[in-house]
Amino acid sequence: MSEAPIFEARDLSRYFDVSKPALQRLLAREGRRTLKAVDGVSFAIPRGTTLSLVGESGCGKSTVARLAVGLYEPSGGEALFEGQDLAEARRSVAQRRRMQMIFQDPYASLNPRWRVADIIGEPLRAFGMAQGKAALREKVGALLKQVGLSPTDGNRFPHEFSGGQRQRISIARALSSNPDFLVCDEPTSALDVSVQAQILNLMKGLQRELGLTYLFISHNLAVVRQVSDQVGVMYLGRIVESAPAETLFTTPRHPYTRALMEAIPDLDMVGKERQPVGGEVPSPISPPSGCTFNPRCPLANGRCRAERPALIAARGTPETLVACHAVEEGRDGFGIRAAA
Amino acid sequence: MNAISRLWDSDLFWSFRTTPTAVVSAVVALICIVGAIGAPGLAPYNPFDLASLDLMDAFNPPFFMEEGSLAHPFGTDDQGRDMLSAIMYGARVSLFVGVSATAFALLLGVLVGLIAGYAGGAVDAVLMRIADIQLTFPSILVALMVDGVARAALPREMHDHLALYVVIFAIGVSDWPRFARTVRGSTLVERNKEYVLAARVIGITPARIMLTHVLPNVLGPLLVLATLNLGLAILSEATLSFLGVGVPPTQPSLGTLIRIGNDFLFSGEWWITIFPGLALVAMVLSVNLLGDWLRDALNPRLR
Amino acid sequence: MAALLEVRDLVVEFPTRRGTLRALDRVSFDIAPGEVLGVVGESGAGKSMTGAAIIGLLEPPGRVAGGSISLRGQRIDNLPPREMRKIRGKRIGAIFQDPLTTLNPLYTVGRQLTETMRTHLGIDAAEARRRAIGWLEMVGIPAASERIDAYPHQFSGGMRQRVVIALALCAEPEMVVADEPTTALDVSIQAQVIALLKRLTREKGTSVMLITHDMGVIAETADRVAVMYAGRVAEIGPVRSVVKAAAHPYSAGLMASIPPLTHKVDHLPQIDGAMPRLNAIPTGCAYNPRCPHVFDRCRVERPELIDAPETKAACWLFDSHAPRERSHV
């Protein structure tokens, strides 16, 4: 695969100023406060594959999604679309139509005052991809069919549809401009589980059919396992582990990844006891020094509290990149567990 | 289903049909509006036609009193002018000023509110501080100042000619911050909704997003506010005219009629001031009650 | 064993201008003392409504229009509001998804705990405070004797939900209705809160009605499970049976559509279509338009809960008196 990845993040960062208003700051003698929502994240998504970012709320995964379609400007690092600077690429209509986004909330992602045909047709009109009303109507009808709805649904308003159907409308809108790269921000989190299966199957089918590339954001590891080729686990604005999906789920290396998997109740767990991870996610405004996971990590030592670990190939599973001193030093007992 | 039966069946109209206050207010408001707009055709006399005035008819009491007659149901004034006709013509001026001033405040407020809410940051801060400062002045004071400036700046003849528009401007300028605040609040909520993000991803310009996405979704609260404001604007105009700084005496509004009639209140000819007053109350109250109903009907949490 | 809570043919209706909507349609189940009953179903299936009806907090204009709810044999669905308030808190505790709806932001958590205990247990202030600290320690709040004087907003989401659990249990109720208690929390915090709820209710012998859409939480917490669909109970039975060998085609489809964590599947089993809206519930079995095993009877006659191999299922496939031309199960 010598072809350039569709999307690449290089040391990408996004900071938010969360200071109080100037007057209050002056009275309280406080400085400015910065939230490092995304703090030096690197990854590349090859054409036609899915890269997923998982993590708990506040880990920065949704911020990465918004950086990837240009809704936010990076505070540092680079976002590249086919090797070209993203902001640059988005200035051209021909490039801009190639990236689209699907959102989490099926109720907020469709304008309640617009008819479905107008919602799906908006990108077509914006990019001048349909000449005349008849052509527009025909294209919208075909898109509705493609996502499993009826062309006559175009005349209805969003509130007449169920959550799953609305998510199909969202997908149809995203597909309308013939994109290559789809950023999916928790696309099934607000849906019921049987509907979630419908949407995941639809998305997988579309990817096969149209050769789409997905950046998939989710907090649900089981969903991520079903859709991903590559997975990045995020914690407090950084990727702490990145590996091919199969490798990550069979041999998770970072203590946080392992804790996350341990925390998920499974259907096979009927009546079983688990030992949940202790502690809570610290505030991203004042993250712990060194490795940010150290206060909750069973393997933490002095070095973990002082020195920030780099994302490097893991001993034992070289396809895995992991940011953990314990793994690097062999303190995680990886060989022993594998042997046992 | 055609448009009329869809309207009849809609939740909003159903709420209207089942709220007696709303129906009564709407009927009263409709009578006021038809009477005002249709004054030239419907009024029994033309109060501005000096030829038709007869001083012999002066100070006729209303029809239900002795000496009253159905020829002048609300009686006549000191010039022998028919009060009913004067009220209808006066309501016409009041309504015109109220609607125009509200429309002016609405347009200005929507524009400022959308820009402030969507742009955020320094633009938002500056625009909203201007609105805050504006709100610290009582609207009557603002209107008096505008009127004063206009009187000083414009030649007398021109001022008389433009007086009506000066009043509209004066009232509109004092009311816009209300609209700006409402629109800004709703815009702040809407602009972070995912449908706006979806439009931004495909590169729709901010101006277009504001007009096609955000504005239709803030219309509800705007409509309520405009209705309530209409009542207030009519009252402001009446107050200004009562103080003698409003519309010119050549085009008497309800406020002007009340002021003129006020002189006769204690000499026994009470109808000259009371009937215009009642008309004003009916008009403002019905519009306000309609606004209250609309606010409740459009609020999903109260439904 | 006599049931602690008995729900019989419960009907909840919402009058609207377009006719009366039936949100719950003859729902029946029991909860035994010390038992954890999981209630699952998709949004709109009526699971939260059932919980709200039990604690007497149906949102108007919703009302109980039929059936009965009994706590240890005493009817509680028709009590005047004052009587119901006494039962709520004292005999039935409640935990909701958003801890901020339960906690009063203006009072310290200690005051809320002590007031609850003083009202329902009749103990003095000093004793109540001593016990409140004990409860905060029990639910895992660090430095409980200091944190007792903190306000709800000074706690994190997970800690707040712990306080809510303490508040729900401190008057030592016989049962707790927990409506999506972990849905708003992060995965790692969810596990902590569920483990806590499980441990405390077992220690105190409290019954739990655990309402959630998360089958994983049910699988590891509940003793029995009720699966709800379109305002009715579709299936009820021991947790292992419902999860591993569901009889009702809906429960089976629901379980199958959960993506597995252990392996990747090419095509997830899915249930086509969506749950009907309350104003368009089909006649007969509410699931019949989506059911792969549907036959004529399902379209006309509503099935009651029938004995299935390991559970009770509202499905004509299991009617032994009049076996139908079942295609295959």
Give descriptors for this structure.
heterotrimer, A: 340 residues, alpha/beta, Rossmann fold, 8-stranded mixed beta sheet, 4-stranded antiparallel beta sheet, 14 helices, 12 strands, globular, B: 303 residues, mainly alpha, MetI-like fold, 12 helices
What does this structure look like?
The complex is a heterotrimer of chains A (340), B (303) and C (329). Chain A has 14 helices and 12 strands. With 340 residues, chain A is α/β, with parallel strands linked by helices. Chain A has a single domain, classed as 3-Layer(aba) Sandwich (Rossmann fold), CATH 3.40.50.300. In chain A, the strands form 2 sheets. In chain A, strands 6-7-8-3-9-10-12-11 form an 8-stranded mixed sheet, with helices on both faces. In chain A, helix 6 packs across helix 7. The longest helix of chain A has 18 residues. With 303 residues, chain B is mainly α. Chain B has a domain of 170 residues: MetI-like fold. The longest helix of chain B has 38 residues. Chain B starts with a helix and ends in a 5-residue tail after the last helix. Helix content of chain B is 74%, strand content 0%. In chain B, helix 5 runs antiparallel to helix 6 and helix 9 packs across helix 10. Chain B is globular and about 75 Å long. Chain B has 12 helices and no strands. Chain C has 329 residues and is α/β, with parallel strands linked by helices. Chain C folds into 2 domains: 218 residues, Rossmann fold (3-Layer(aba) Sandwich), CATH 3.40.50; 62 residues, no CATH class. In chain C, 33% of the residues lie in helices and 22% in strands. In chain C, the strands form 2 sheets. In chain C, strands 6-7-8-3-9-10-12-11 form an 8-stranded mixed sheet, with helices on both faces. In chain C, a hairpin with a 2-residue loop joins strand 1 and strand 2. The model of chain C has no long low-confidence stretch (mean pLDDT 90). At the A-C interface, helix 7, helix 8, helix 9, helix 10 and helix 11 of A face helix 8, helix 9, helix 10 and helix 11 of C.
